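Example (one chain per record):
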Amino acid sequence: MKPLDEQQQKLIDKYLEGRLSDEEEQDFQQQIQQEDFAAEVQFQEGLQDAVQKLAKEEHPLKKRFQGEEKKIKEGASIDADGLPYFERRKEKSKPIRQYLNLAAGLAILAFLVYQLFPFIFPAHTEPEFPIAAIKSLERPPQMTQITTGSQNHPIDSLAIDCITLFKTESQYNEALHCFQNLSDLEPTPEIQYYTAQCFFNLDQYDAAISVYDKLLATANLLEKQVQDQIRWNRLVAQVLSRDGAYEGELQMLTQDKEFRYLREALKLQELLQG
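Predicted structure:
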């Protein structure tokens, strides 16, 4: 039998409830000519009649209790054996599965709280120290004549090798040893400055600052431009080593309008404040 569509079922429902309009009555009469529709109507009519008949019948127990109720009102004795006995249900012990479910629920809740706690109550952490940005403010030396120029060709050749290593990425360890050997042969301020910058690029800031201080103590041997560069790189090394003494030097440099690296100093101040 072909299943009815929703419209046909609504039509049958209204027919059984006696709520068909004139237009729906005409539609119903047309549909009833179809075998499947007629069979469904007949089935649902039979089902409705059976339900209504069952609803009208009285349960035997109801008649029995009505009879006993009548006896009580008339004062007659009641035969206890005549009444049905309903045993009181014993309270069932809670199965262990309920406790397991409760434990599982609490475990899931604890896990969710653990996972969500950092988002609900974020920790107040200090802003990340901008190491890379600060280190990028360092200004490397550009000097190529770092010996006394005394026509000592082996020393001059070694100086060129040292500078080449320094300018080659990730060769700062080799460059440091080269400059230290060169300094043993001819300790010029320029060689010492390159040595300090090797320490700086190897993140050995205290060693770099120590060399910077020696150079600044003999500043008369260097040009003003080089002196400013050494002061600046020394300050950056101080900041990166987290030495709090840099604040006074930075304040002084940002107020020095003649300082060659004033723009970099202002940028550093901005990074540290923000």
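Caption: The chain has two domains: 6-56, 131-273.
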